[in-house]
Amino acid sequence: MIFENLSFIFCYTIFVLMRKIKALDIGCGLSKVPNADGMDVLPLPTVKIVHDVNKFPYPIKDNTYDKIYCYHILEHVDD
Predict the structure, then answer these.
(1) What is the pLDDT of residue 79?
(2) How far, in Å, CA of 69 to CA of 38, rounded?
(3) What is the pTM of this model?
(4) What is the pLDDT of residue 56?
(5) Phi, psi angle pair for 38, to nearest 5°
(6) Tell me, what's the pLDDT at 52?
(7) Using alpha carbons only, what angle is made at residue 28 by residues 22 and 31, rounded to the nearest 5 degrees?
(8) Residue 17 and residue 14: Cα distance in Å, rounded?
(9) Are the C-beta atoms of 73 and 26 separated by less than 8 Å?
(10) Helix, strand or coil, per DSSP, at residue 77
(11) Which of 66, 69, 70, 75 has a CB 3.0–4.6 Å from the CB of 25, allowing a cystine?
(12) Is the pLDDT score of 5 beyond 70?
C-alpha cells in the first residue's frame, strides 16, 4: 500500500513537472513575463490579447490559464 501511494505521488509529480503551464501577463506592455501570453490595452508586439482591464467580461474562456501575472496594473484599474 505504501509503495502504491509513493508510485502515484511520483507519477503525479512527473506529470506536473512535464506539463506546460499556461500563463497570462495582464498589463504586460513591452516587458512581458517570458513564455506567458500578454494582455494589454495597447496592440504592442508582446501582446496577444488586446483588451482594457476595466471592461468586463474579459475575452478569455474559464480555465484557460494556470497562472496569472499582474505587475503594475493597480494604478490603471478604475474604482
Answers:
(1) 75
(2) 9
(3) 0.74
(4) 93
(5) -100, 140
(6) 96
(7) 105
(8) 5
(9) yes
(10) coil
(11) 69
(12) no
The closest alpha carbon to 65, from 20, 24, 28, belongs to 24
**Confidence class of residue 10 from pLDDT cuts 50, 70 and 90?**
low
Instruction: Provide the grid cell at 73.
Output: 496594473
* Cell reading at 47: 501582446
Per-residue pLDDT at 14: 64
- DSSP secondary structure of 34-71: TTSEEEESS--TT-SEE--TTSSS-S--TT--SEEE--
SS (H, E, C) 27-40: CCCCCCCCCCEEEE
Say how many CA atoms lie within 13 Å of 70 toward its Cβ: 7
